[in-house]
Amino acid sequence: MKRRLNVLCLIVLLVLSYSVLEAGYYFFVGAKAGIEAATEKGVSPMKQKELMNMKYISLVSHSFTMAGGNILPDSVYNEKTGKYLPAVYASMAVSIDTHPAMWEVITEKALGFLQIGLSIWAAVLFIRLIIAINKSNIFNWKNVRRLRRLGLALIVSFCCTFFAAYLSVLSIEEVFSLHGYSLCLSEVVSITTLVLGLCSLIVGEVFAIGLKMKEEQDLTI
Question: 47-69, pLDDT tens digit by residue?
Fold first, then answer.
């Protein structure tokens, strides 16, 4: 039974680690590309500006919400057959200057750092929880607090990601529009951390209820 629990904990830890690495990877890749574009010699100012203004956007086709609309309104070229195939765009990267206000830039950067920090803290809490379980220290208030903090860290981390993406979409919508499509957050924001956070809170409350019932039984004996 303990082996099965360790396997499940390892899977959850891998998911958490992936979330942390994904956030850190895209954050540092973007920062690295910006620094290289600003310092590299031989790169034209226009190219530097394109790299600095690159944005990743998620799209939803208007045809999905229109009765009788064409579900695949666009097309892509298939090099294997030499023919164009019906298609619909879901996401793309564009270079566009959104002219963000200073507070928007500071807020997005702060949310990015906060999200990475919270993800690391959540991973540390989960590792401590696994260690306690392996030592057979399972049902105690310390683990309840760990589960609650873990859930809170994951939920706040998701909120940071969501609000940063929301601010980005708002700024892009002011200067960019694609015919037949609307900007959305479906591909930009993942709900994995939110689901894990809610599950942690639920498990923590189950532990708390069990401990309270045990304490009440001990008092009545």
Answer: 767 767 778 788 888 777 665 56
Q: How far apart are CA 147 and CA 153, in angstroms?
A: 10
pLDDT digits (tens, 9 = 90+) for 113-150: 898 888 888 888 888 888 887 777 878 888 899 999 99
pLDDT of res. 26: 66
The residue-averaged pLDDT of 3-14 equals: 73
Burial class (CB in 10 A: 0-12, 13-18, 19+), 60: middle
Are 70 and 63 contacting, i.e. CB atoms less than 8 angstroms apart? yes
The Cα 101–Cα 171 span in angstroms is 9
Chain mean position to CA 37: 26
Two structure tokens written together for 1? 């039974």
Q: Closest Cα to residue 205, out of 158, 153, 141? A: 141
Model confidence at 31: pLDDT above 70: no
Most distant pair of Cα atoms in the chain: their distance: 82
Distance separating the N- and C-terminal Cα atoms of the chain? 31
Residue 177 tokens, joined: 């529009």
The dihedral built from the CA positions of residue 30, 167, 156 and 15, taken in this order, carries a sign that is negative
Residue 178 carries which side chain, given as an amino acid letter?
L
Radius of gyration of the chain (CA): 23
